[in-house]
Design goal:
Blueprint lengths: L3 E8 L9 H17 L4 E3 L17 H8 E2 L8 H10 L2 E9 L5 E8 L5 E6 L19 H4 L9 E4 L2 E7 L6 H8 L5 E6 L2 E2 L5 H4 L2 H16 L2 E6 L2 E3 L2 E3 L4 E3 L5 E4 L6 E8 L4 H4 L5 H4 L6 H5 L9
Parallel strand pairs: 1-2, 2-4, 3-4, 8-9, 9-11
Antiparallel strand pairs: 1-16, 4-5, 5-6, 7-8, 10-13, 11-14, 12-13, 14-15
Bound molecules: 4-methylsulfanyl-2-ureido-butyric acid.
Length: 310
Amino acid sequence: MARHLKIAAAQLGPLHKADSRAVAVKRLTNLLREAHGMGAKFVVFPELAFTTFFPRWWMENQAEVDERFFEKQIPSRETQPLFDEAKKLGIGFYIGYAELTPEGRRFNTAILVGPDGSIVGKYRKIHLPGTADAVEGRQGQHLEKHYFEVGDLGFGVFRAFGGIMGMCICNDRRWPETYRVMGLQGVEMIMLGYNSPVGLGDSFDLDSLELFHNRLVMQSGAYQNGTWVIGAAKCGFEEGYHMIGQSAIIAPSGEIVAMCHTYGDELCVRRCDLDFGLRYKNDIFNFAAHRRPEHYRLIVERTGAKPPPE
Ligand code: CDT
């Protein structure tokens, strides 16, 4: 029997510091309704979707940071309307948020929510970019290593929506290991949200390739593992910083089959055949037949690159 799933990548335009959770939840709920109206059964929202991208700022008062940007509970009183609407419409979703656990640990987290409102899976971001301390003289900071711990749940996959679903978050999409660990569990669809700023002080030649690199990593991750990849951006001009858009749905062929073209709230929708990846998984990327892990040991034994002696 054909396994088709109609998916929406729900891109969010900028969210500012002054925007309350209620503002974010209203916009997310509007996108959810619109996606449902277009026949989508699953919506992918961005990373840290309830607030502005706060790791751009060094902030001294952690209690205030926790209050403004972290979720102690999900859903909470303020985020509940999104969950209620999704349940009412019978539509599932992926969403990213800043998680503060009862033990006081902080993670950059994403959850997979089923059409009945239950949380089917959780992922905590593993590749945290940037620095733990503010870098002097840098135009914009990227302090994820300051605000979050490295995720402790690995790259799990979940049987849901008639397929094998995986999650990662933003910077994870740039690392081939992210996709391959899920590929080795037979993943059929990887969802990810991102906040990718440009102009944090890098040189123009790097910044100008940001959109290309965004497509490059998601397209290669999809193709090399025979999986769908759905990327949803929070983008636009947020608190004085530009963040890239081009939220996209990418087929296991590596082709972009739907893409957002604005820098605001926008959907791109596509009916995805979850069996399509088999054409790659059973042939060119038949892992069991062709992989040679005995030659890949360095990948798990070594972290940083070490060139051979002169
Ligand atoms: N959110 C996130 O992970 N953003 C990073 C920006 C890196 S710039 C220090 C990304 O990889 O897009």
